[in-house]
Protein 1
Amino acid sequence: MPARTSHPAQTVGRAVQLLRLVASSQARHLRLVDIAEMAALDKSTAHRLLQRLQQERLLVRDPGLNGYRLGPLLYELGLAALPGTNLRELAQPALQALARGTGDMAFLLARSGFQSVCLDRVEGRFAIQTMSQGVGDRHLLGAGAGGLAILAALPEGEQQIVLTAVTPQLRRYRLTTRLLRERIELTQRRDGLAVDEGRASNDVTGLARALRDRDGVPIGSVLVASISARMTESRQREVDRRLLNCVAAIEASLRQADAGAGAAPVRRSRTRPRDTSDRKSPSGARV
């Protein structure tokens, strides 16, 4: 009996895992054989799940490319699930100021389980812009400066949970568990500044800092990326200063939005109006 009751939950978990794999793939069109291997499933099980996801419009199969991509129902569900506090909208003024100030590409990332997802990016004015991530791109926490900033800001116990979950996929990012732990420790020694020098993208250096909600929980990060030749040590210090200002501005906007959303509505009294015939105005006139 217990095996029967756990089976549907296991199936849902596997289906969600496949959706995450497709969403995080840089290829955009993953083949059945690739999905099965990455999910550690046999091909028949993976094929059955993929067919069902396709029927529900959660995935789309492109015959010409012989692969799967995310389906339209996910977009529709995403619109319905927009939070009351829209991080992308709140962060946009500060993110634009960061791109103007540095001249480089600025990114806004949010945490999504064991991954980071790019919510927005703004181009700077420097001649060479690094398109290292597009809006909607997903990567493992710890992969790239943005995901590393989030991971390093988590409590130690939660870090261990993430590390256990992402370890099987670290090879895709030229990482090992030991190397990722060293990068977390280095980020913490830098007081939360995460630096990726060419590991996430060749000849690209990224600097990032975590974003926290009003309770201090890491919910995302802000990232600046540029060609490595431009990111000298002195320039990294300047970019970090602007990153700190950007993070502070976004977190202030989040607190303000949360305070506004939590404000109690004004309640109108249902009692009879008082007699004001003897009340005086500031000028002394009767009102």
Protein 2
Amino acid sequence: MNKDITIIRSPVCNLSSLGWLKVFKEYYFKIIGLDIREFLSIYKHVDFFYIIPSVKEKQKLQETFLTLIEKHKVKWLILGVEEEIKLLLEIENDINNLGAKFFHPPLETMKIITDKYSLFKKLSNKVLLPDTFKLSEIKDFNVINNYSGFILKPTKGRGSTGVKYISSLKELSDFECDKYDYIVQSYIIGDEYSVDVLFDMNGHLLNAIPRKRILVESGISIITETIKDYDLIELCKEIGRELFFRGCLNFQFIKKNDLYYLIDINPRFGGGSIISFYSSRSFRKNLISLLTCKNKFTINFNDVKPIRMERYFLEEFIGFKK
């Protein structure tokens, strides 16, 4: 029984959280669900639910977490919003002093992987990445005229928020920056892949589960399939040697001409990462061992079972009676 181990999961009122809430409940963890809005149907999936301030209210958000961590004797923070993770990592010592730990990389790593240009500079000599430039630093657009298209991304952003496809050099040169500071990346046409990676608290890679993203909506996998691909696993090992990670993360790639290009690192469970829990026995055992602080791990990168996950919406009617 793991009821003496309490997990804060935030946010919980979204498509990708429900699968993990079911797993935590199946393994008898105590779940504190948090979100900035209320869904009445979420109460049956958590032990306690609280509405919390948004990341725009930094101090209030930090104080709310400290209060809840102390009140419920929380052991783990498993979060889903990069801005929230970074704000709370600023007070990691205070959180640790209350007995709680982050299931996320430390702040120094977060600063690199949530700044897309810093990530490019850090890994450009280790793995393939799309050609990347800061839009504000491009003096002559003709130097990038050999690309079939461009992807504009906020230098600091989450998921697909603010991402734009630009089809021509003229359109790019005419683009007027809005509230974001943008990078420009060469547009690569290929198949999308994700790898769900699990690290222990000392930065050692325990699992890497590759999967193909077949249908994606709003940045979240709706249909995905796990695969065995040792090239992707080796790339993840290389990335893990360059940056200090802990907990579960999601690396995203595009495959073109049998080559993989890293396009993003998510410092959290990916939108479709729940499939890896069911695809790999060692992933399952290692994750639960981490959360229960037993730290007895099985290193097996070969036990990925190819399975397929499909998602769909199911309505719930509250207050309706036949």
Protein 3
Amino acid sequence: MDYTDNILDIRDLTIGYLNDDKVVTIQSDLNLQLKKGELCCLIGPNGVGKSTLLRSISTQLSKLKGEILLNGISINDYDNQTLAKTLSVVLTESVQVPNLKVNELVAMGRFPYTNFWGKLNNEDQEKIDESIHLVGLQTLAERNFIELSDGEKQKALIAKALAQDTALILLDEPTAFLDFPSKMAILAELRKIAHSRNVAIILSTHDLELALKMADKIWLFPNKNEFKTGIPEDLVLSGAISNAFSNELLSFDLKTAHFTQRIKTRDILNVEGNSIEVEWLKRALIRKGISANPNNNMMFKALYDGSNNKYILQNENDIIGIFDNINEILKKIENIN
């Protein structure tokens, strides 16, 4: 295999930890590669080794066996300063830094490049300002870090990693405390950074549907001592995603890439049409345990009149009711015996 284009090579790696002098193995014989310019999402259920892998790559946790190479060089051969210029990391621990402003925290990412006194030059300040802007914290740059919300703190730590200007960035659940629009924005920005700056980024996440949308590559840990890797589409079509996350309550929809609740439905009516209004009516019906199959040969029929913006419920050829919204027609349908 040609490793020359890889920023990260993981070869026959075994990871785990010591528990009362007993070695606990979580994943073994891992062989993974990552190229510059790739955004890689590390996914899997809890307890399968996602954080352990990131800690092992960052040398915060000793590997049990195997090799971790950065730019073809064993990570153990890097001195601290050179490693800090190559690899930045944001882990999940709560960070408490009283009396430190956001811009001062982000500036700490430039320490590997400053002189003995930690003096920042113009280039350093540009990197700091740019990183704060990328995560959308411009208005909070002068705020004390401890005054921020959990989501804002997470953004500040991501900005610090970006300011460090490394070829590889490791992020452990970077969107855990963010609202959905912020999750989307952060992942989109990280993907843009990976591509535009030729930076490799690995992030662990439980936001599976976002990972499938945004990632260039997926590292999937379905269970302990089991891993799969590939682009999102191939892992979906192979059944790997469904097998890893579906259960008796949830099923993975191959067409939409969404998880849906397994609900036993009853056949009451046909739902006709394919407009967006009809699709949302179908969602509401399924949530209520009512089949939304348009092919059912049923007495009742629901449809949407786009010219008048009305929902219509029919009994064979007779109109039972005309409704302004889904809530109104849903109440009527639920009363059908």
